[in-house]
Amino acid sequence: MSDEEPAEEPVEDVADDAPPTEENASEANPSEPPVEEPEEERDPLEVALERAEFAEKEIAYKEAEIQNVRKRLMADKAEAIQYGGMGMGRRMLTILGDVDRAMNGIEEDDQSPVAQGLRLLRNKMWHELQADGVALIEAKGAEFDPSKMEAIATIPPSDDHPNGTVVDVLEQGYMYKSKVILAARVVVASE
Asked: Is the pTM of this model over 0.85?
């Protein structure tokens, strides 16, 4: 006897002896195409009508989308025209504020040329701004409106100033047509 071990015989796979199932059958013969069910032949006129109906729906959808875009662009254009001067109004209001601060140092009865010139300048600027659509936000004594006002300080409510009312205006606020340019800075009575 030799020291060599005898060669092991290959063990046969049990699954190979199993009867073919549908999965095994398709794997066993990959060259055979799967059996397809015969498709019904459709009338070409019917197919064309379906395609035309689908195309009509797509066209109607695209037309509606174009109309929506056109309406949106018209609204944007109208708003741009309506509020086009808002930037200039905002810049002019800062100058008007400077003129107001300069006038705070002038007494009411001062008739010097500088005082008269400042009053005239302030009145002309304000009238031009009003003509363009700028309006003052009336805040003192009104109910606090956070969309138009900014509360800088609060004080406890009293009989004269109920809760939620504006007690004092620290800095005037302005609107351009229906939009706020500068919010009014106010003192509010609040608990």
From this structure: no
